Amino acid sequence: MYEERPSRLAGAVVWTHTPTGGDPRPVLPDGCMDLLWNEGRLLVAGPDTRAYLPEGPTGAWAGLRLYPGTAPALLGVPAHELRDRRVELSDLWPAAEVRRLRAGVEAATRPATALEELALERTTPPDAGLRRLVTALATGRPIAATADELGLGVRQLHRRSLHAFGYGPKTLARILRLQRALALARRGVPYTDTAARTGYADQAHLARDVRELSGMTLTELLGGRGERPKARERPGGG
């Protein structure tokens, strides 16, 4: 069972997931990074460029999904160094500090809330420019126009994006477009209309992107064979 709620941390989502048997569901790329708790471990999920199939322990998970671009300031690590990776928090922070934090989360009645408190204590105010960038790309704004609006050159925007999101603005825009399309399709919008409304050339283009980013067809995703329910839909999921 998967549950989530908005966090007190701007743009973040607090979530829990308890597997109920059957095959694990892949987590789709969404531009976010997560702080995770599982079986006594604190981990970080880096930004994905493809669907991630959970492996290892199958116990209950708790997580804090951070708004795109906000995790590097919290973790002290550029996002591109964690791209398509799951790492122990102790690989990023001093081991003694992580042991103390782990003890606090383990003692908490609600580990997900403890993760939220941890981040609230350590986070810095969000970068307004990065949030504007995500908002623009999530609504389908062209990259060059977005760079102009932010007063950045295209190369400068690419460098900032690598640090903040783990990949360039083109990849981020593609991922956010997929999330927009999935949100419409879940609401019953026909695939042809979904493709047109989210900037795909046609339904075949949408189908190719879904296959490349998720490893499944759109029908498989919506039919429950992939993607945990409503998981990691921010910010492009509507």
Helices and strands in order, then pairings?
Elements: E1 2-6, E2 13-17, E3 33-38, E4 41-45, E5 61-66, H1 71-75, E6 86-88, H2 95-107, H3 111-122, H4 128-138, H5 143-149, H6 154-165, H7 169-186, H8 191-197, H9 203-214, H10 218-222
Antiparallel strand pairs: 1-2, 2-5, 3-4, 3-5, 4-6
Report on this structure:
The protein has 238 residues and is an alpha+beta fold. The protein has ten helices and six strands; from the N terminus they run βββββαβααααααααα. A hairpin with a 6-residue loop joins strand 1 (2-6) and strand 2. Helix 7 (169-186) packs antiparallel against helix 8 (191-197). The chain is globular. The two termini are 21 Å apart. 40% of the residues are buried. Keywords: DNA-binding, Transcription, Transcription regulation. This is Helix-turn-helix domain-containing protein.
Summarize the structure.
With 238 residues, this protein is of the alpha+beta class.
Features:
238 residues; Arc Repressor Mutant, subunit A; six-stranded antiparallel sheet; 43% helix; 13% strand; HTH_AraC; Helix-turn-helix domain-containing protein
Give me the secondary-structure category.
alpha+beta
* Number of DSSP strand runs: 6
Q: Per the principal axes of the C-alpha atoms, what is the gross shape?
A: globular
List the uncertain runs.
225-238
Work out the count of structural domains: 2
Q: What percentage of amino acids are in beta strands?
A: 5-15%
How far do the termini sit from each other? Answer: 21 Å
Radius of gyration: 18 Å
What is the overall number of helices? Answer: 10
Q: What is the average per-residue confidence, as pLDDT, rounded to a whole number?
A: 89
> Strand count, sense and closure of the main sheet?
6 strands, antiparallel
| Element-level helix/strand string | EEEEEHEHHHHHHHHH
Regarding quaternary structure, what we see is single chain
Task: Name the helicity range.
Answer: 40-55%
- State the strand order across the main sheet: 1-2-5-3-4-6
Pfam families: DUF6597, HTH_18
Protein name: Helix-turn-helix domain-containing protein
InterPro entries: AraC_XylS_family_regulators, DUF6597, HTH_AraC
Keywords: DNA-binding, Transcription, Transcription regulation
